[in-house]
Write a structure and sequence with these properties.
single chain; alpha/beta; 5-stranded mixed β-sheet; 5 strands; globular
Length: about 120
């Protein structure tokens, strides 16, 4: 698990890479961080509303003062893309500063271009 902030982390859950429905998402905690499973996203183009939905899933727990760990299979692309979105939307960070922060805190970070482009479109960067 890679801590980006004291209350926000990303992690590779190591299970099947893509799940079709939210009902199949991993639930629970890693240490005292609530798991938000983002494996419903694919490593390619996704509908912009899917990014926003996952960002809101994370921010809703942050608003309750819970620590959150965003999980995909490896912890390199999708989870970090959503973390960038959370930093921009909830923490009001500049998009490029958010990217720099995630890259600096997550050594395996490799956000795929379709995710970056979708987030830039979502946040009008």
């Amino acid at each position: 698990m890679y801590n980006i902030l004291t209350n926000l982390a990303t992690h590779g859950i190591g299970k099947p890479g893509i799940i079709e429905r939210y009902v199949n998402c991993e639930i629970g905690f890693i240490d005292d961080f609530r798991i938000i499973d983002v494996r419903t996203l694919i490593d390619g183009e996704n509908v912009p509303s899917e990014y926003l939905l996952n960002i809101v899933r994370v921010t809703s727990y942050l608003e309750l003062r819970e620590k959150v760990v965003i999980c995909c299979r490896v912890g390199a692309s999708r989870s970090n893309a959503i973390a960038v979105g959370v930093l921009v939307r909830y923490f009001k960070m500049d998009f490029h500063k958010a990217m720099e922060l995630v890259i600096s805190k997550v050594p395996i970070c490799n956000i795929l271009q379709p995710h970056i482009m979708a987030l830039q479109k979502l946040f009008k960067c």
